[in-house]
Amino acid sequence: MSTINTSISSPPSSIQLDKDASTKPPYVNVNFQSNSIHQQSPIPGQANRPALHHKSSLTTEAYFTGPADIERHSKLPYFLRMHGSITPRMLVPLSFVAIWATIITCISNFWYPLVVNSLLLTVLGFVVGLGISFRTSSAYERYVEGRRYWAQLSQSSRDLARHIWIHAEERHDVDPETGKADLLAKISALNLIVAFAIALKHKLRFEPYTNHPDLGPLVSHLSTFAGNALHQAPPPESKTNSWKRRGTFLGLSFAESNPRKLLKRANAANLNLGNLPLEILTYLSAYTTSIVANRTLDNGVPQAMILGNLGAMNEVLAGAERVLNTPLPVAYSIAISQITWVYVLVLPFQLWASLRWITIPGTIVGAYIILGIAAIGREIENPFGHDVNDLPLEKFCAGLADEISVIASRPRPAKGDWLEREENRVLFGKSWNSWSNASVEDIREALAAKAAKAGGMEGFEARHERLCEKVMRHAPV
After folding, report:
1. Which residues contact 455 (CB under 8 A, 6 or more apart)?
2. How far apart are CA 94 and CA 86, in angstroms?
3. What percentage of the chain has pLDDT greater than the value 90?
4. Which of 151, 122, 60 is nearest to 396 (CA)?
5. What ranges make up the beta strands (E) of 327-428?
6. What's the pLDDT tens digit per position in 259-312?
7. 40 near 59, Cβ under 8 Å?
8. Does an H or E element contain 93, and which?
9. Which of 112, 159, 289, 369 is most buried (CB neighbours < 10 A)?
10. SS3 state at 5
C-alpha cells in the first residue's frame, strides 16, 4: 500500500504580496517521497519553521528566562539549581534587607538597643503565614487551571483533526480534481486547528497581531481584524535595552514594560483587533458547513463530534481568558505585600536581643523564606507569560502540530490494509486467516478460555490445547 505524503506550504502573507505581486508560491505540494508534513515559510529567504523537537544549549540569558524546557534534564539537586529559581529576583530585596538589618544592629550595639518584644514576632508571623498561604494557593490554583484548559485544548484539537481527516470523504472516484480539492481543504482545516492554538498563545501574552513567524504563515490568507489592523498601522518593533533586561531579570517592577502596551496603542489609534482565535473558529465552522452541504460528511455522528469539539475549543478560549483577566484582587495583593514587608522590617528589632550580630544573617534568611514564597505566588499567578515557571506554550503548540502532522501523514486506512493481515494475531497467537476458517462457536469458546486464563480457572491449559488443535485443523495449508 502506498502512502501519500503531504508537504504543506502556507499562503504568502499580504506584506509579501505588496512587495512582489508576481511571486505566488504554491500553497500545497503533494508528493510520494516522504511521510512527514513540513511547514515552510512563504517568504523567500526566510528560514522554515524550526523543527518541533531539537536539542540546544541554554544561553546565559535564556537560563534565567522562560518558559523552561520540560524535556531538559538536570542532574543538579534542586537546592543548587538556578534555572527556574526566584533567587535572581531576590537579590535587590535581600540587599536592602541586609543593609537595614546592619543599620539596626549597629545602632542597637553601639548607641541604643532597639528592641521589640518577641510577642509581636509571633502575632505578625501568624498573620503573614495566613496571607502568604492564601496568595500562594490562589496563584497555584490559577496555574493548574491554565494547564487544565490547555490539556482540554490538546484533546479537542486532536479529536477534531482526526474526525475531519477520517470522516470527511475525498471524492477521487467522482473526479480527480474534485478529490484533490477535498484533500487540500482538509489540510487547510488541519492548519487552522494548529493556528487556533498558536493564536490563543499570542492572545494570552497580549500579542494581538498576526506578524509572528509561527502564526503569520497559517492565517495570512484569512480576512481577520488583526490582519487588517496590521496593514493599517503596523506595530513598532519591540526594543529592549540592557537596562530593562537587567531590571526584569532582577525583578524590578519599574524596569518591566506594560504587557498590554500593544493593546493600548491599538485602542488609542481606534484599531479594532478583534479576537483572532474566535475568528479562526468561525472559519472552521464554515468549513464544517461546507462539507456537510456537499455531502462529503453526511453521517450525523461525526458531524455532532466535530461541532462538539469546536464548542470545547471555544470553551477553552473563554476559560483561558477568564484565568488571564481575573487576577487576585489588587486589595489583597497590596495588603499581603505590605504585611510581609512590615514583618521583615521588624525582624531585626526582635532578633537583636537574642542573636546580637547574628541578627544580620538571621534577618536575611528569614526575608528570603518569606519574600521568596510571596515572589513565587506572583510569578505563577499568570501561567501564560514568559517567566521560567510559566507554562511552556511553545512546546504545547509544537507538540500539537506534530501530532496533527502524524494524523495527516497517511490516508484513511482501509479494512484490508491492517485488519486481515497475517501479522494480526487475534487470539492465542493465531492470525486472522487462521481464525477466519474456524466456526463462530470455536471463536466464542476461545474467548471464554481467554477469560478463564485471566481469572486463573482450572482446566485452562487443556482447553487451550484443544482449541489450538481445532483451529489449526481448519487453517488453510
Report:
1. none
2. 12
3. 24
4. 151
5. 425-427
6. 677 777 777 778 888 899 999 999 999 999 999 999 998 888 989 999 999 999
7. no
8. helix 87-110
9. 159
10. strand
Q: Which amino acid is at 447?
A: L
Q: Taking Cα atoms as reference points, which of 62, 96, 105, 106 lies closest to residue 371?
A: 96
Whether the Cβ atoms of residue 404 and residue 6 lie closer than 8 Å to each other: no
Integer Cα distance of 393 and 67 in angstroms: 8
Instruction: Supply 148's cell numbers.
Output: 487544565
Residue 436 has pLDDT above 70, yes or no: yes
Judge whether 226 and 208 are in contact, CB under 8 Å.
yes
Single pTM value for the model: 0.76
The 3-state DSSP class for residue 28 equals strand
Residues 44-93: tens digit of each pLDDT: 333 344 344 444 455 555 555 666 666 676 677 766 776 667 777 788 88
357-374: burial string, b at 16+ Cβ within 10 Å, e else: eebbebbbebbbebbbbb
Count other C-beta atoms under 10 Å from residue 10's C-beta: 22
Residue 112 carries which DSSP code? -
CA 242, CA 36: separation in Å to the nearest integer?
Answer: 41
Which residues fall within 8 angstroms of residue 293, CB to CB, at 6 or more apart?
none
165 vs 404: CA distance, rounded Å: 10
Which amino acid does the sequence have at 20? Answer: D
Helix (H) / strand (E) containing 430: strand 430-431
C-alpha cell at 416: 484490508
pLDDT at 82: 67
Cα pseudo-dihedral 33, 35, 40, 45, rounded to 10: -40
What is the secondary structure of 417-428 as a DSSP string? HHTT-TT-EEET
